[in-house]
Amino acid sequence: MGSIWNSSEGDLDCSSVFEIDISAILLDDSPAVSVSKISFASDLLELSCSLFNGDVLLFAYETNKNYQPDVHELTGKMGSLELSSTNVNKQTIDISDRGPRNVRKGFLPQLLVKPMGNGKVTALCNSNIGFVAVGYESGQLVVINKRGNVVIFSEKLQDSGLSIPILPTSIEFGYGSPSETPLTSGSIFMYVGTSVGRLITYELVGDSKNRYVVRFINSVDCNDHEITNIIPIDSTTGRPCQPNIQILNSLKDGTPKAVPLVISASHNDIRITKLGTKMAHKSYSKGELSNIGITGTRTPNGNVGFCIVAILGGSKKLITLSLPGLVEMVNMRIPYRIEAKYAEHSSTLPMGDVFIRITETEAALVNIMKTRKPVMGLETTQNSDSLFLKTIHVPFRPAANSLLKNTPNLTYDHLYRLLTNREKVVSRVEDVKLSWLVSPYNPANYNLLGSGKPKYYDPNAIHKQVQVESSISPGMNTNNIGASFQKWSKSASNTLQMTAGKVQDFAGETNEQFDKYVEDTKKSIAKSLLPGGLGNL
């Protein structure tokens, strides 16, 4: 089962969570079809996920052409003409008929990519321009063009000079100029990080018929350990340069682009390269660096500045580094007790937020750029975001939904039967009847007790203040109430401060002395109140 969680903190009108039942799509509920990696293309609303058995599923958010909410689940499965097609010996299999019939619009399955004996998936990237790159534990690198659901590149990474295998561990797409020559039109690049710390750069070259081929550009040994993160950025602005459809169209028009800088990170260090040349480098203790990301904020002069955010899971710190020199600017403590092995699954969002995975089942959103107020805190009393209705009035007894057909309101006898699993015994003792007449649970006594029916909170008006009906005694001077209570509050506050300063002195003395002091304090409060407004009420 896969889920997408909304971290907008109420900024969006919809708070729905998308769920994809992979076991129902593949007709297999074994542990081998559990999700191991996920890659999301936000511009195209496409999602790719790899499974522990080596399969890769490609999804797209679209309207379901086979939407039939009244069709039984088994009937829908039997209606698939390719019910057993996932067992054929093909690398790419169309599974668009496997979408759930009861979903009108959502992430629907499109393509299944088989491992073809290459083992588990070690790297996965779904780009915003229609290309999906997959790396396997055998060293095989596969690129799929979703425009035709075809494999355009399949090659095994190897080096005759190394006795150990080379595995792709991280993949990212970027764009920019392939040389320092001025007015050079840009290209689409694919960066592949490997298990030996080597960064390999490929170029995707297309023709007039939108047919693409992948061509090797260069490779550089830039990191001390396997590369876990790759971030291409613009060398002039520092802005991340992941391509999208708009950028792809501008490249076809021959618009000049800047040379990209590539940030690559392992669990030990961070490196910046440019056209295969090493530049800045930052080292950490072995295994201390969990994840990196790039974020930005608007400066006072109106420009947007970018920096690198490094998550150190071992020392539980967030560090911001400058670009391109990797100079440490801020070092802050993570306000959670995180586990280092889960911190590598954290993510840095582009608007100043860091999504930190704390434990196996817990994550938190931390804002490091102060671009917005947190949801909970002393300074957010006027914030529009609400987690719950703080001032809601709960009715005095449970009630069922009276809109449902033949559903009566819940009575005291029904609740008694629900809690005790037996009928309520009607007592014939006269004392029981007399006690019920004076019981606060008797609805007839509500007015006598002074707790009239409150105005219940309207859930659709989140920002309204609850008002409760209250009555004031006719003989009470309402003009003196505010002044009297203000005087009492001030006197009580001064007395409490005086008491707080002397509690430590009395703590070691006998109880009689402490009780005497408390009694004297009460008398002093009474003397200050009686001559005032309360005495005139």
TrEMBL record:
Lethal giant larvae (Lgl)-like C-terminal domain residues are 33-403
Q: How is this protein annotated for GO cellular component?
A: cytoplasm; plasma membrane
Q: Origin, by domain of life?
A: Eukaryota
Q: Name one GO molecular function term.
A: GTPase activator activity
Any Pfam family:
Lgl_C
InterPro entries, alphabetically?
Lgl_C_dom
GO BP: exocytosis; Golgi to plasma membrane transport
| Database matches in PANTHER family | LETHAL 2 GIANT LARVAE PROTEIN, TOMOSYN, ISOFORM C
Official protein name in the record: Unnamed protein product
Organism of provenance:
Ambrosiozyma monospora (Yeast)
